[in-house]
Amino acid sequence: MIAKEKSGEQELFVSGHRACHGCGMALSVGHILKATGKDVIVVTPTGCLETFTSPYGYSPWRVPWIHHLFENGPSIASGVAAALKAQGRIHVRVLVIGGDGATFDIGFGALSGMLERGDDVLYICVDNGAYMNTGGQRSGASPMYSSTTTDPAGKISPGKSQMKKDLPAIIAAHGAPYVATASVAYLKDLEKKVKKAMEYHGPRYIQIDTPCPSVWGFSPDRTLEIGRLGVQSGLIPIIEMQGGMLTNVLKIKKKIPVEEYLKSQKRFSHLFRDGQHQKEIEKIQALADINIQKYGLLKDVEDKR
Amino acid sequence: MKITLGAVVKGGTSLNYKTGSWRDQRPVLNIELCKACGVCESVCPDGAVHLVNEAYRIGYDYCKGCGLCAYECPADAIQMVAEEK
Description:
The complex is a heterodimer of chains A (about 300) and B (about 80). Chain A is α/β, with parallel strands linked by helices and about 300 residues long. Chain A has a single domain, classed as Rossmann fold. Chain A is about 40% helix and about 15% strand. Chain A has an eight-stranded mixed sheet with strand order 2-1-3-4-6-5-7-8, with helices on both faces. In chain A, strand 5, helix 7 and strand 6 form a beta-alpha-beta unit. Chain A starts with about 25 loop residues before the first helix and ends with a helix. Chain B has a domain of about 60 residues: Alpha-Beta Plaits (2-Layer Sandwich), CATH 3.30.70. Helix content of chain B is about 10%, strand content about 20%. Chain B starts with about 25 loop residues before the first strand and ends with a strand. In chain B, strands 1-4 form a two-stranded antiparallel ribbon. In chain B, strands 2-3 form a two-stranded antiparallel sheet. At the A-B interface, helix 1 and helix 9 of A face helix 1, strand 2 and helix 2 of B.
């Protein structure tokens, strides 16, 4: 397979941005824009993506891009979509690319409003499971028993004791026509989903698992490997929901125990330090098993249905 | 630097900022082993790998040396070596 020749000059998201080494989020954005093409306006709420792409005078965006407040990404996007409609420029589409802090927590009210009004916006959440931009504070997307700076593991606490918010299900419940999850470990699947979402009108949502070497605590060359472990353990289900119904899932090739995923990252290292946390690990395994059952992630499970 | 109304910045200007200076590990591509599959280009978070004259080249202007290309290369054609400055 020989790819088409091109130089960095023609890309929509160019080099020179200031993301950390091996950033899963920076990688995903390049592929998102490859799938959408140039006729988009990107709205980015506060977060890592905003920070590393907006030192004044140095923008890697080759599409119109706007940054605003932390909480109002969906509202700004709704406004942009309304303006385009009023101008009759229907070939230009609106995209929000925001982090999990802006999506799960701070901008959630505005997001719910955007979904309820049915605005023509594709909302993409690049989910790294905490507020990485400010050093890794807990968010509604942080996984259970991960250690964060505001929910640190120690003698008494095993880290965050709550579950990750099931946002795709909440969004599907709003009646969004297209809801999907993806992972940077499966880039072709990611691009396919963005392309598919662009075919729909109305509010659409894609949640991308973007491993973060700096705060999750792993070597920056393992970003895709960690993503794969998450998916293959069942902790990160890759699914597609159309019209509120589950229509497609990425099957697990070979199911791995959650320990393999947890051991690969520093944010879970406390679970293995003294052998006192078997109960917590079992609980995480149970979460993975529920996902596998709920979405039919294993091949044979699907056959039995 | 002039501040514009609304802090508007021209697109693609980050190309003026060479992130290659961040690198402490340098990926070296062995063209003999390369199968031109394109995985390295696809997984580079910094858009530093490109096809030039039908061969993949790593652009050291922007490569931060994360090592993703070397780890993901199915042909083991990329080695990470310490950067000498």
